[in-house]
Structures are given as C-alpha cells and as structure tokens.
Amino acid sequence: MDRKGFNKILFLLIGLLVGYQIGQWLIPTTHPIKHKVNQVLELTEKYYIEAIDPDTLSEIAIEGILSKLDPHTSYIPRDIQKTFEEQLEGNFEGIGIEFQIIEDTITVVSPIVGTPSDRLGLMPGDRIVEIEDTSAIGLTNIQVIKKLRGRRGSVARIKIYRPSEKTTIDYEIERDIIPINSVEISLMLQDSVGYVSLTRFAEKTADELLKELESLDSKGMKYLILDLRNNPGGLYDQAVKIADYFLSEDKLIVYTKGRIKEFNNESKASKKYPYENVPLVILINRGSASASEIVVGAVQDWDRGLIVGETSFGKGLVQRPFLLSDDSALRLTISEYFTPSGRAIQRDYKSGKNYYEEVMIRKEENEDNFNHQSESDSLKDEFTTAKGRKVYSGGGITPDYKISSGILTKFTASIRSKNLFYQFIRNQIDTEKLVLNESLKQNFSEFSSTELIDNQKLIEFRNYLVSKEIVIDDKEFERDREYIKVLLNAYLAKEYFNNNGWYSIMLQQDEQFKKALTLLSDAKSMLE
Description:
Strand order of the largest sheet: 10-11-12-15-16-22-19
Number of strands: 22
Number of helices: 19
Helix content: 25-40%
Radius of gyration: 25 Å
CATH architecture of the largest domain: Alpha-Beta Complex
CATH superfamily of the largest domain: 2-enoyl-CoA Hydratase, Chain A, domain 1
Oligomer: single chain
Shape: globular
Number of domains: 4
Strand content: 15-25%
C-alpha cells in the first residue's frame, strides 16, 4: 500500500475514533473503550510520521463521523456558529443564500427572500461550482462564507449548475445587507386580503408576525394568505407560537419523540387570539421545511385552513445545539416531530438517493388534492384530519391544492441571472427613456394600472440584450413574454415603491398565489 492510501485509512480510523469520543463527551460513560480511544489519539499525535494539527484533524474527523448519521446532524465550527447567531439576531453583508455542502459541493438550500440571490433567480438545489472563476468544489463552510460574504456593493461572481435543467449559469451578484427580519413583506390586497411572507423562524419571528397581523387587522383584513415558500425553518418554539395564533386553546400543535424520554414533548395552543377565525390559506413549496412544516401540519390536521403549492421539503428531525469547549457546536438530532394527527414529516434519507437533489427534481402534477386521493396508493402511512380527510406521512406536507411555480426557459433564467432586467430598467431611468410623472411615482394604484412596459419597451429590451452580446432565442423569449413584462415592471415598481411595489407586481404572475385567492371562500367555509 502506498503512503497516500495508508494516510487515507489512518485518517478514516482516527475520524471514527474521534467521532466516537464525541458521543462519550455528550453521554458520559465508564466504558473502558473510552480510555482506549484516548490512547490511540495520543499515540497518533505523538508518533505518527507526519505532524498533524490537532484542530484540523479534529474537524475533519468530526465531520466524517457525522456524515454517517442523518443529514441534519452537523458540526458547526466556531466561526460558523457565530454566523448562525447572526442569522437569528442581527444583520450581515453577503449575497443572501442558505446553503449546505453536500458531497463536496455547495448546495443552495434556499435563497433568502428579498436578497440579491433571490432577485437574480437562484433556486433551491442550485450547485455553486465556481466562485471568482475558481472551482468551489471541496470548500469548507468557513471558506464558502469568507468567499461569499463581503462589503456591501462589492460583486461576487459565481457559476451554478442547475440539476433540473442540466445546465450551468453565470451570476454576478452585488452584495448587500442581508436583513434578519422574518417578515419579508406584509400587504393588504383587494381591500380585505392580508398577505404576509415569512422567511424564517428566528428569535423574534412570532413577535414580528403578530405586529403585522395587528396592522393588517386594523386595515380591515378579513382573509389571510401566509406565504411560507422557501422558508427553511428555524426555531421550534417560534413555530409553536405562530401556530397558536390560528388555533384555539388546548389544540395540539406538535409533539416530539426521541430515544431519551426527556426529549419527548408536546406543545398545545395556549392563548386566544383574534386570528383564530380569519380564513387562512398557506403557500408552501419544496423549500418550505422544518418549523414551516410544523405550522402547516397543524393547520392542515385541524382543517383550520387550506394549503396551496408544492409538497414541502420533509424535515421532521429536531436538533439540539451542544456548545463545545472552543465555542464550536454540535447540532445533534435528538428527536423527531409529529403533527397532531400523528404524521411523521421526515423524508427518507437512507435510500441511497441524493437527499437534497431528490426533492428538487421530483415531478408533481397540478391538481385539486383536497381529499388527497392521489396519495392513497402510496406506501405512506394514512392518518385522518379533524374533519375526516385522509393525509399521509413520511414525505413532507402535501398541499390540498398542488400548483407548480412554473419553469422559466433557459434563456430567461440566464438573462435574469446576469441582472439584465434591473440593468435595463436602471438604464431606462438614467437616460430618461422611461420617465414617470409625479402622480405615477406617488400613487401605486395608478402605477399598477398603467401599461409602462408595453410592446415597444419589449423591443427596446431585446435591443438592449443584443447590445450586451446576448443571443436572442426568439422562441423562448415569446414563451416567457408575459413573465418578462411583469419582471421588468416589478423592477420599475421597486425603484419607486420598494419591496411593497416589487411584491405587488410579482404576485400578479404568481400561479400559486392566484390559486390561493380563488380559495378564500373555501377557507372561510372550513371554519363553519
């Protein structure tokens, strides 16, 4: 055996031993093998032919052993732990993505809503394969953060591979302040419909949402659409508090079971809120996970509202952080959570399939799924909602109405990734080719009812793309024609009305949102 092969086996052995030792630290034991493990580590450090940095060796070993457990148990180095704390408490500057490193590749779990990555069209499941023209394969979490974070206004150049389209796309992403606010946008639509987009479950998420609900209520909200799409989850207790806003007292929200009894728990609605009788529709997609699924599962099981969109991610494992001596942390799976009907949400991770890729490339047909009949022949366990509807376990939350988010052509996705929509609008404003009168700048209702992006502007946009050396695909341009118009109009709205303008325009072409609007009366009837 050559030196390289010998080293590989040695590192694997030490990794397994160190990983085992972590378990001993977490669960004290007097088993004699603990002494044996310490001996092996000490002898290796003292006598091995090459000097091994203990810290580096420990981190490699820890990551190695944890990779053999479930996909959500993870070791968090000190610098990354600080980042997690920032995400729950403050702001940072970067491109705005949630990511995990899967098989040496940076995988986008979700673009953070409203950030540069979201605006340019990064999608859950995208693989970042290059950063600044250099391979990004094999980077550690710390290295990724150092490369993608940076001063506001600086530009990060990345190349992604999109498995669903089997293509690569180049992005130039201008870094910005990444807000940690959980409520991305709150709008009153059609005089009586409240719309709230919730992006995460952090320390003050429930308080933020309650404040927005109170504001919408004061404006005459009679219906609510809660958008949890691409919400990767977060703090368990925040999910419980938010579900409590919509469920009457003493209703079970979620319960957990673990190997150790102290990790078994059940949470119930405990307070009365004025929103318990507001007709509710929740939007989800395959990027909705964890705490999002707790809220959705409780609402669906109690027939409290309707769920629209795509089947959620399927993360039903609960992690507890254990701080280690150097301020790093171990997020260890300690239990699994279940919806009120008894459904397990966790998707299978032992089948050998790529856990993250599998959920992003799955196919779903649009259908009214209120009685969940399309799932009745599956191998999943069957459960019953409060009003007798059948629901199924083991693969996330399946919506009551399946609606695809739609797929852009490769051409449109590519020009969006290059930020050319925004650049065109900026150029139109700067060169005064598109001038709005003061009334349009001040009155969004007038703005939205005026056709500012007409056929002539589309011709100008095509010419602008050609000037940027973009080869126009006429067929794909025409297929996405209406979307292109809406997106240009949304960027224009953002210039004058900020995120309120952006979302109000973008929702116009959002098929899942439009379906939700048609179901408000049905959601009301569920309260009867």
